[in-house]
Every structure is written in structure tokens, then in C-alpha cells.
Amino acid sequence: MSETPPDRLAANPNSPFYDEAMLERGVGIRFKGVEKTNVEEYCVSEGWVRLSAGKTLDRAGNPMTVKLKGPVEPYFKDKTDAA
């Protein structure tokens, strides 16, 4: 398996950028140097993240999101990163 996270990844199974194997491995996101735990989707090359806006849902039952632009740093949450 690759040692670098994908350029773009989504948590929604309906998205073409959804990758179950990567999500099971555990991908963490640092956005503007701050650890984010509510990321629904990200793109490193375009420099944006979609964050869920609380527990609010849209009409289809998907989380409402906010798109923010800035530097995105994905990493794998392996035991080697904990040190």
C-alpha cells in the first residue's frame, strides 16, 4: 500500500473520491497547521477541505458542510506517527 495519502479523499460512499481501504487505514488531516477531526472531504492540490457543520443535515440526510481554503496536510494515523 502507498506510503502517502491520496491527493483527494471523501468520506461519503456516493462520492467518486471515496476509498474504503484508505479510510480504514486511518487518514488524519492538518488544516492550516491544526488537527481537524470533522473533515468530510479534502483536496491537497486545490488546497481545500469540507468540514461538517455540527450535526445539521441536508434534505438527503447528508451532513451540511463548509468549504475552507488553505494548506492541507494529510497523513496516515499509524502507530509510527504517534511518536
What would you note in describing this structure?
This protein is mainly β and 83 residues long. The protein is 7% helix and 46% strand. The protein is built from one helix and seven strands. The longest helix is centred in the N-terminal third of the chain and has 6 residues, at 20-25. The two termini are 21 Å apart. The model has no long low-confidence stretch (mean pLDDT 90).
Task: Give a short synopsis of this structure.
With 83 residues, this protein is mostly beta strands. It has one helix and seven strands, in the order βαββββββ. It starts with 7 loop residues before the first strand and ends in a 7-residue tail after the last strand.
Main β-sheet, in a few words?
4 strands, antiparallel
Ranges with pLDDT <50 over ≥5 residues?
none
Question: Number of DSSP helices?
Answer: 1
N/C terminus separation: 21 Å
Count of β-strands: 7
How much of the residues is beta strand, in percent? Answer: over 45%
Structural class: mainly beta
Mean of residue pLDDT values: 90
What is the element string, with H for helices and E for strands? EHEEEEEE
Biggest sheet, spatial arrangement of strands: 1-4-5-6
Question: Nearest-angstrom radius of gyration?
Answer: 13 Å
Overall, the morphology is: globular
User: How much helix, percentage-wise, in residues?
Assistant: under 10%
